[in-house]
Amino acid sequence: MSNHIMDSLYGALPLCCLAWRIDGQTEHRLQASADFQFGEAYPGFQGHFPEQPILPAIVQLAAVRYLCECALGCDLLPKKYNKIKFKGIIRPNERVVVTVDLADGAAGWHGSFSLRRPAGEMVASGSVDFFNKRDMDFANT
Question: Which of 19, 62, 79, 103 is spaced 20 to 30 Å from 131 by Cα?
Fold first, then answer.
């Protein structure tokens, strides 16, 4: 996908995030969750797949990043996703709960995530490492 398309998909996430919250926090850990609902008009469904739309995996990972940025209050860049398992599909207008459990490390944030239906059925899970975008901007100057 082109950067322009990815920017528009990511830029539309605030409209799909119904609510987010901090579920727990210590000095070096943070747990957060958010409720998402991707309407039929969400651009991620276009062409994926005609007459049987499903939310692309890359958008699911973008929702994880969006929640982390909201909870941490900073822009993040994904360094690595690991052990990702996609166990279900998300169709238009279905609600999904995204949860993250993050730890502050020397090289950024590391944590686990899950996407579940409101009844608890697992849709996706994995782990992620993020750089703080501000730190990367300083490193490149």
Answer: 19
How many domains are there within the chain? Answer: 1
Q: Which domain holds residue 103?
A: 3-139
Nearest-angstrom CA–CA distance, 137 and 80: 18
The shares of helix, strand and coil residues in the chain, as percent rounded to the nearest 5, are 30, 45, 30
Looking at residue 27, which CATH number applies to its domain? 3.10.129.10
Give the number of other Cβ atoms within 10 Å of residue 8's Cβ: 12
Q: Block means of pLDDT (10 residues each) for the chain, length 141 residues?
A: 63 96 96 98 87 94 97 95 97 98 92 98 98 67 48
Q: Is the pTM of this model over 0.70?
A: yes
